[in-house]
Amino acid sequence: MRLALALAASLAVGAGLVAAITFLLRKLFLVRRLAFPLYVAAVAAALWVFLLFGAGDVGRVRAALWWSLLFLGIATLLRLLAVLLFDVHLSGTKGLKLPPLLPAVSMFLVYTMAALVTLKVAFPGFDIGPLLATSAITSLVLGLALQPILGNFFAGLVISLERPFRLNDWIRIGEHEGRVVAITWRTTHLRTRENDNVVVPNGRIADDRVLNYYYPHPMHMERVRVGADYRVPPHRVRRALLDCAAGVPGTLDKPTPDVYLVSFDDSAILYELRVYIEDVAQSPRIASELRIKIWEEFHREGIAIPFPIRTLEIAPRARPAGREATAAAAGEAAPAPRPGRLFVAEGAERGKTLHLDGRPATVGRSRACDLTLADGNASKEHLRIEWTAEGWRLTDLASSFGTKVNGHPATTALLRPLDRIGIGETVLIFESEATPHGPASR
Question: Which of these, 394, 134, 298, lies nearest to 142 by C-alpha position?
């Protein structure tokens, strides 16, 4: 009767304490972190109540109580150290997002070792050798059976410590690309542009190459290639492409966009527009808007995007040398002016075109000039271009800062196709019949 009463009282105390601990787990953070030591304390309290009734083998119950109290103290100390390591240092100070299973597995192994050591201390005659052998065999069998899961687990641990990517990073793993939305102990979850969820095992991530678009900076280079007609000068295509890069939402002004001539293909010259964007997730939308603007700008500028065709052209017969001089000696009229143009490649007026029709044309800051510049280094009437029997000639009109032709100072110069004329920060490109027809004057 006394033994039954002792068992009932100890079970009632243990069950009550376990229920109270379970209730407080939802309310208090500290109770959640010390749940296992508190459950051990509930067991120790139940053994202590059993001893109060003095029923049964008191010596063995007292040894069990001593073991539970010893194990309680060690488990509490180990749990507090784990809180400092996992919650305070790694998660709080270092900012590491650990796999949820890592602290649990680590504490299970530590508690098992502590339980075996305290059993040997509390029960000196207890042989833990068979128990250790059984545990080793069981661990070996479980390790072989759970090899893929354990591989993913340790890969997840390495990812959490090494941090090749973080939550919200945009990454590519093999053929999969998307934003990292979750990193668990076994898998990594990616959210694709199609709003689909891709689950990638951590073991595969450890073996595959990972491209992180957000490290060390989310800035990303977007490339758009387009072909242009051979008859359009590259400086016009470059200017048109740079104008297309301005004003597209999601593109960055710094680093500045740039244009590269990639190759001379069969039916077109291939150009590449390079812009920097702030989020690679918006890459398809930005590339689409750039292509739309390129088509519109090329249409306005009269720049053709050729079809992949081949055209056979027969060059006109060359005019005999000295014919113009012979004609002049014979009293023939001087040759008619060849069409020419001035294209503003750099400067405040970039993109403008001045058509030369044979009459003298002036360039300067004055509104009376045929091409008015806002450049502070330009004089009111800076230079004049006129047709002569030799061709188009440039004459500097005693300007304050001078004129450069192809980088060299010049007071007068006979212009050749694609000569570059420098006026302060402004660059003009001379185009004649040797260069193709450009867009209408704007």
Answer: 134
Q: Which residues contact 344 (CB under 8 A, 6 or more apart)?
A: 350, 351, 352, 353, 371, 426, 427, 428
Q: Which of 119, 2, 8, 128 is nearest to 63 (CA)?
A: 119
| Pick from 334, 307, 316, 347: nearest CA to 391 | 334
Confidence band, pLDDT 50/70/90 cuts, at residue 29: confident
- Starting at the earlier edge strand, list the strands of the sheet with 220-228: 220-228, 269-277, 258-264
Yes or no: say if 293 and 246 are a contact pair by the CB < 8 Å rule.
no
Contact 214, 169 (CB under 8 A): yes
Tokens linked to 252:
């960055």
Decide the pairing of beta strands 187-191 and 371-372. Answer: unpaired
Separation of alpha carbons 164 and 108, rounded Å: 28
Distance CA 379, CA 319 (A): 40
pLDDT digit string, tens, across residues 180-221: 998 877 788 999 988 999 998 887 887 788 899 988 888 999
Single-letter residue type at 162: E
- 246 pLDDT more than 60: yes
pTM: 0.59
Q: Mean per-residue pLDDT for 65-79?
A: 82
Instruction: Tell me how far apart the alpha carbons of residues 228 and 223 are, in angstroms, rounded to a whole number.
Output: 16
DSSP code string of 42-104: HHHHHHHHHHHHT-S-HHHHHHHHHHHHHHHHHHHHHHHHHIIIIIIIIIIIS-----THHHH
**CA 360 from centroid of its chain's CA atoms:** 54
Alpha carbons 273 and 174: distance in angstroms, whole number: 27
Q: Which amino acid is at 394?
A: L
List pLDDT tens digits, range 273-315. 999 998 888 999 999 999 999 999 999 888 999 887 666 677 7
pLDDT at 101: 60
**pLDDT at 330 exceeding the cut of 70:** no
CA angle 205, 211, 216 (to 5 degrees): 120
Do residues 102 and 185 touch, judged by C-beta distance below 8 A?
yes
Q: If you search the block for the tokens 């739309």, which residue do you land on? A: 292
